[in-house]
What we know:
Blueprint: H1 28-34, H2 40-47, E1 55-59, H3 67-70, E2 76-81, H4 84-88, E3 96-100, E4 113-119, H5 127-137, E5 138-149, E6 153-154, H6 159-169, H7 178-182, E7 193-195, E8 200-206, H8 208-215, H9 219-226, H10 230-244, E9 250-262
Parallel strand pairs: 1-2, 1-4, 2-3, 4-5
Antiparallel strand pairs: 5-9, 6-9, 7-9, 8-9
Helix pairs in contact: 6-10, 9-10
The chain binds S-adenosylmethionine.
Amino acid sequence: MLGWSRTFVPRSPARSPPISNRHFEDKGADYARYRPTYPPALAAALAGLAPARTHAVDVGCGNGQLSVLLAEHFQHVSASDVSADQIANAAARPNISYNIGSAENIAAPDASAELICAAQAAHWFDLPSFYAEARRIAAPKAAIALITYGVFSADGPAAERIRQFYWNDIHKFWPEGRKHVEEGYAGFDFPFAPIAMPALKIKRDWTAADFLAYARTWSATKRAEKAGRGDILQKFETDLLGALGPKTRMKITWPISIRAGRF
Ligand SMILES: C[S@@+](CC[C@H](N)C(=O)[O-])C[C@H]1O[C@@H](n2cnc3c(N)ncnc32)[C@H](O)[C@@H]1O
C-alpha cells in the first residue's frame, strides 16, 4: 500500500477561490455528462514525461476527466478541485484519491509526485502560488504539464452559425482568463525547462442537443443568463436545430495545447 493512497489532509485549510472564479460550483453533474473527455493518447504522452509511475497529481481535476486516464498509467493519482460539487460527481477509481482543495495549497507530501498536471484549469489559478506548491511536491526530475483545449471547430451546415455564436454572440460574457485558453496557454509565465509535446485533438460526433448541452456548461452562457441575456442561447438553439434537425451529427474538433516542462 502506498503512503499516499488515502485522502491527504492539506497543510492548512483550502482557500476559497475568488468569487469571480466560482463558475463550477453548482454544475458538477452537467459538467460530468456534457464536457468532452480527453483521448487516451494524452495520458500516455503525459505519463511518458514522468521519471517513474508511482504518483501523479491532477489539480483542478473537475470530475476526474484527466485523472481517470492518468490512473491507467500511475499507481496512484491525487486529484483535487476547489469545487465540492465537481468532486461529488467525480469518477471513482481504486487508485485515485479525490479531495476538495486548491491549486495554491495542494494536499500532497513534499517531493512525492513524478507528474503534476492541470487540465483546462490553470487559467483559474494564482500561478505563482501554484508553481510554488508544484515545486514543493515535485519528486526529483518530475514534470509539470498544463493542458488546455481551445476553441473548437464544427463541420457541416451549422459550422458558420456556431462560429458566430462563439465569437460574436457569447464571447463578451467569458471571464478574462478565457483568452489564455484561446491562446493555448502560449502567454503563460512558465518557468520550467520546456518539453515539446505532440499535437493532439479531441473529436466528437455530436447532435445539436449534444452541442447545446455542452454550451450550457460554459461560464460564458451562465454569465449571459445571469445578466438577463438567456435570449442569446434560445436564439442559437432555434437556429442550430433549424440547421441540423434533431438527429444530424456534426464533427466537433478541439485542438489540445500542452505547456510541459521539467523542474
Ligand atoms: C474547466 S474545469 C476543468 C476540469 C477538468 N480538469 C477537465 O479537464 O475537464 C476547471 C476546474 O478548475 C477548478 N478550479 C478553479 N480554480 C481552482 C483553484 N484555484 N484550485 C483548484 N481548482 C480550481 C474548477 O472548480 C473547475 O472544476
